[in-house]
Amino acid sequence: GIIDFLVSQHPIAKVLRDHLVFKIAPMLNPDGVYLGNYRCSLMGFDLNRHWTNPSAWAHPTLHGVKQLIVQMYNDPKINLEFYIDIHAHSTMMNGFMYGNIFEDEERFQRQAVFPKLLCQNAEDFSYSSTSFNRDAVKAGTGRRFLGGLLNDTSYCYTLEVSFYSYIVAGTTSAVPYTEEAYMKLGRNVARTFLDYYRLNALVEGPLAPIPKTR
């Protein structure tokens, strides 16, 4: 949904492409997913625990993406502001985010802005399930490792989305996720960058509904 929307001719997508650069790695576990695994690679590695020191041989996708991120971070011409790792969640419902904890209170508060905006745009995204933590078990995740590497103008998140369903605020009934619902959440994630960077005034004409692109 994110990719389809960003490359579409929607007025919001055009504004986002004109003002922001998106680097997208659509799949970090292609061999594992091909075999039906949703967590482990072909060699049995949980890839989202090896960001600290990925091996070019054992974790080639992580190694390549990490090199790209570090290269961008060290380039004075690039302002690397967001890292969002997208996962499915096997037990919780809705979409929600994991973020990092910082000693700097202002930085911590600024980190909460994007998920709060996303919650306003997506009925299936839950800010109450969003969590900011420093769990030692997750020290090897992309979100934790890069949160410690990048500077205080960078924000690192894991976007988790339920395998099963979501509950709309103010209701109690679970709504099963469909392929279109997942796509819609992706479009809403992309649209949230318009709000975050306050680019709304640059969109030509009234904000049209985001199409069901595929």
UniProtKB/TrEMBL annotation:
SUPFAM superfamilies: Zn-dependent exopeptidases. Signal peptide: none annotated. Gene3D superfamilies: Zn peptidases. GO terms for biological process: proteolysis. The active site is at 160 (proton donor/acceptor). Keywords: Carboxypeptidase, Hydrolase, Protease. Residues 1-197 form the Peptidase M14 domain. This is CBPC6 carboxypeptidase. It comes from Crypturellus soui. The gene is Agbl4_0.
